[in-house]
Amino acid sequence: MLKIAYHPIYKYPLPKGHRFPMEKYELLPQQLLHEGTCTSENFFAPKMPSEEDIIAVHTSEYFESLINLTIDKKAARKIGFPLSETLVERELRIAQGTIEGSEYALKHGIAMNIAGGTHHAYANHGEGFCMLNDQAIAARYLQKKGFAKKILIVDLDVHQGNGTAEIFENDDSIFTFSMHGAGNYPFKKEKSDLDIAVPDGSGDEVYLQKLTEILPKLIEKQQPDFIFYLSGVDILETDKLGRLNCTVEGCKKRDRFVLGICKDLNIPVQVSMGGGYSPEIKTIIEAHANTFRAAQEIFF
Fold first, then answer.
1. Record's family (predicted)?
2. What mean pLDDT, rounded, does the chain reach?
3. Which CA distances in Å does 67 have to 63, 84, 117, 161, 212?
4. Which of the four CATH numbers 3.30.1330.60, 3.40.800.20, 3.30.70.890, 1.20.1600.10 does domain 4-299 have?
């Protein structure tokens, strides 16, 4: 059975006019339930993570500043959210959802998180709507527990996973692969183990050709025993913050390709949703829902 991390706190309301589409975290589970892709049994509410698991990736000073809401105003502006105790709890539960999901994936092949993909969170600061790097935290957790040795992070959000790249820049046991829009934020990129900058305006053909050429060879070379997949839908032509021209169908093909490889090679995969900022919320929901539909069809 597919397991999906979701907690009511995910839909934390932001001030009116904020550009981040927080409502998608409530509407996506509703859509999956309504259409019969999922039942209530597919969802689990993540607990709170241990401090030990967080500071295995983030500095204790940064973690304490978040928990105590003592982060300075400049650093808070870089994150992009008006900080609160509830918002910090939300980020912690998202990270734990990815941890618990990765454990489930070890036994059943795949697990997903309705939220997550917070790849702009660095070891000592947050930015770009990201405070704690959920997949980095879960990757370290798996290694600490001895559940995985070599991990591959496949980041297909339209924005480079700069925080993830920085966290693991000197760690050969976790390979960071980011395929992103060349002209997109962050404008000062970090160095992933493999960065593929897709030219602005590229559509399905260019995007999928690059991915299908690169990913199988990368997996063959790295031989990971676990994969984290960040399936951002901000590669869509309708996305307000992206500069690529992929269609919903192209995004669907991307997800089916990645998940299909994981299934065929018997490599456990945890999926976090990442970004999506199209003007119409129904476009975001449809593109994200396709990822869950693909997971059900391919794995179960």
1. Belongs to the histone deacetylase family.
2. 96
3. 6, 9, 20, 24, 42
4. 3.40.800.20
Residue 144 has pLDDT above 90, yes or no: yes
Tokens of 256: 């089916």
> Up-side HSE of residue 93: CA atoms within 13 Å toward CB?
21
Q: Which is nearest to 232 in space by CA: 16, 23, 10, 24?
A: 24
Distance CA 138, CA 22 (A): 23
Q: Give how far the C-alpha of residue 145 lies from the chain's centroid of Cα atoms, to the nearest Å.
A: 22
Q: Looking at residue 5, what is its pLDDT?
A: 98
For residue 19, is pLDDT > 90? no
Number of H helices, E strands in the chain: 10, 8
pTM of the predicted model as reported, rounded to 2 decimal places: 0.97
